[in-house]
Write a structure and sequence with these properties.
eight-stranded mixed sheet; DNA_methylase_N6_adenine_CS; Rossmann fold; alpha/beta; EC 2.1.1.-; 274 residues
């Protein structure tokens, strides 16, 4: 099977053409259903029931192509009064094995509301296929800054100072609340897609769930963030995209991405949180 390519077509149709059990991780950022109300691709279903039935199909095919130790990351968001993703998470967790729920803390709020808190997060439902999964927590450690390390080194409970320093220099494990700033209009990373995810966020998901050479699939490639992250991290990738204009953006973007010769910086630079 040819990899590292963009497939122009419908997600469900193209997923059905792929062999079973070949993908190590799936990063899916599908339409959210009536959340981005100005986008035709997010408002194409007449009812929530229609949308949920559509999701049943592409998720089932995604899980079919997933390896037994693989993970599927499915993004979702609640709209101003739209809560279909809550029903989708419940529905998919009954049809497939639930693994985790990640909260993407966007760092800043959006769409100010007068009668409720300003929303600042999106969700990532994580599904698994088998009883054990490939997962490497060390790849998403959050480094402590030098000042914090020195402060913790003064803790007299730890007698082996060398071992303590090595432990601190590795950083702390990331939680399932991932704080990665969302992309602003002036961001150099912005490519023209209204729901584009930060490269740093997708890198974290790929790094913790795959090894170099593993295959990553994105059924809704959009502007190509998953492919770009996979290429940077030396993973194989496949992307499916229906919109030809987004395909042009993704292909142009991928031409500028080169795999690093040293470790990819997928971690936050500093943290003072123990």
């Amino acid at each position: 099977m040819k990899t590292n390519r963009v497939i122009h077509g419908d997600a469900l149709t193209e997923l059905q053409k792929l062999p079973a059990g070949v993908v190590q991780a799936i990063i899916a950022d599908p339409p959210y259903f009536n959340v981005l109300e100005d986008e035709a691709w997010d408002t194409q279903w007449k009812t929530a029931a229609d949308y949920l039935a559509w999701c049943d199909g592409w998720v089932a095919e995604s899980m079919r192509v997933l390896r037994d130790d693989g993970l599927a990351f499915i993004f979702g968001q609640l709209g101003k009064r739209e809560h279909t993703f809550l029903h989708l998470m419940s529905r998919l967790s009954q049809q497939h094995q639930f693994h985790d729920l990640i909260i993407w803390d966007r760092a800043v709020g959006y769409d100010e509301r007068r009668d409720s808190f300003t929303p600042q997060y999106e969700m990532v439902l994580v599904l698994r296929k088998g009883d054990s999964v490939k997962f490497n927590k060390d790849t998403v450690r959050i480094p402590y800054d030098a000042t914090t390390i020195e402060a913790y080194m003064k803790d007299n409970r730890y007698k082996d100072k060398e071992a303590r320093r090595k432990h601190l220099e590795k950083g702390k494990y990331a939680t399932n609340i991932l704080r990665v700033p969302s992309l602003k209009g002036i961001s150099k990373e912005k490519c023209g897609h209204p729901s584009q995810k930060p490269l740093a966020l997708i890198e974290k998901l790929i790094a913790c769930s795959t090894d170099a050479g593993d295959l990553v699939l994105d059924p809704f490639l959009g502007s190509g963030t998953t492919a770009a992250a996979a290429k940077k991290l030396k993973r194989k990738w496949l992307g499916i995209e229906k919109d030809s204009s987004y395909i042009k953006i993704a292909r142009k973007r991928l031409l500028s991405i080169t795999a690093p010769s040293s470790k990819s910086s997928i971690k936050n630079r500093k943290s003072s949180i123990p």
